[in-house]
UniProtKB/TrEMBL annotation:
Residues 47-198 form the Trehalose synthase N-terminal domain. Residues 275-452 form the Glycosyl transferase family domain. It comes from the Bacteria. One of its GO terms (biological process) is glucose metabolic process. SUPFAM superfamilies: UDP-Glycosyltransferase/glycogen phosphorylase. Homodimer. This is Glycosyltransferase. InterPro entries: Glyco_trans_1, Trehalose_Metab_GTase, TreT_GT1. Belongs to the glycosyltransferase group 1 family. Glycosyltransferase 4 subfamily. GO terms for molecular function: glycosyltransferase activity. It comes from Corallococcus interemptor. Keywords: Carbohydrate metabolism, Glucose metabolism, Glycosyltransferase, Transferase.
Amino acid sequence: MLKPFEVHVQASSLAPFHAELPGAEWEALQASALQARDRMVGRTFWNVNSTARGGGVAELLPRLLAYARGAGVDTRWMVIEGTPAFFHVTKRLHHALHGSQGDGSPLGPSERACYDEVLRDNAEELLVLVRPGDVVLLHDPQTAGLAPALAAAGARVVWRCHVGCDMPDEEVARAWRFLEPGLTAARLAVFSRAAYVPPMLADRSVVIPPSIDIFAVKNQPMAPEVTRSILGHTGLMELPPDAPEPVFTRADGVPARVSRGADIVRLGSAPAPDSPLVVQVSRWDPLKDPVGVLRGFAQLLLESPGLCAELVLAGPSVMSVADDPEAAATLETVIAAWREQPHYLRQRVHLACLPMADPEENAAIVNALQRHAAVVVQKSLREGFGLTVTEAMWKARPVVASAVGGLQDQVRHEVDGLLVRHPGDPVEFAAAVRRLLVDPVLAARLGTQAREHVRTRFTAPRHLSDFVDLLEQLDARV
């Protein structure tokens, strides 16, 4: 019997935003918090997804729910359990919604039976907890099939799709046909971009871009010497001889130390502290195109052999993300591509699996890696929304991203980053990275503008306001 489990989230005060927001924006945030509390009196706001760690949803939920709790809303986070066969089906759906065939496996009657059986088990436990009138936000394809049972029990069900395709094709249509039986019960659907909304949901869809929490461990300020110390102790960089303790502050204010190392594939030594790093942090997913990043970096060194730079491709430990069965195979593909490269290139490319046993320790390592990076890249072939790009922009890092999906909303070309119009072209990618490495004035200007762009459009205050609007629309559909 598969049962969902709860991830406990502690309340966080909105008070820290007072110092970050202009007066009018702070007053608007307080008003949104009051409206959210009043609308949810006597009701619980449930979020249901498929993993507690790894990936964008697991990054997004904890802090948003913490602020909602701090605003007086009873919020709870449930994670469904699934079998390997179930997660194979949902990964296939994930690819299809991006317009990709993935492994080409079918989405037929047997896959439907597997999907429904797992969600039927999970629904039984949720139905014990969810009360009539509660709001249930289901995240992504893994949970869509829960909607009918929860709606029948009197819950107000919203489905949140974090992925999509700008140019829908037969693969996208195949995914929607599979998901449609469950989605008929959802009162509203939320998408990151209008282009992702299918015709069957056009009359009940809302567009809400994701956001980051600027006070989370992954985004908290970090002194350069501490950044280097964390990277040194993790093995991602040579440890400076005078490095301080690799410390960070947990979300509850308690100091902590980075004690785990990364699993790294490399030839030779770690990068020196003064070596410029080109960094991509993402899941080990073929749609993130880590092999393409490697080949683009090879093109960069081929055209500019005297350029001083090294590449770090970093992702979570492949055994740590429950709903991603392709991670290990993708990493093996990247390692195989790395082995094909000449000796001099392998010396300057580092493939790192970051420890996930302690999510906040992992967040501190990612924070240090992004802050130390000379250039942060996200060369995705498809992307619903790239949280790591927004995180890097908040840290005023210059970014290079593919002009696909939500990345086009996050990065304004030549304003707060550079977009690669043809993601599969290593020459174009190499040229964009080179521009930022050789022109520090341009890199600094883009980084400064990027931080302000994130502050105004992609942080929790805006997301909370969108949440209040969502509740208003949901209540209007009684």
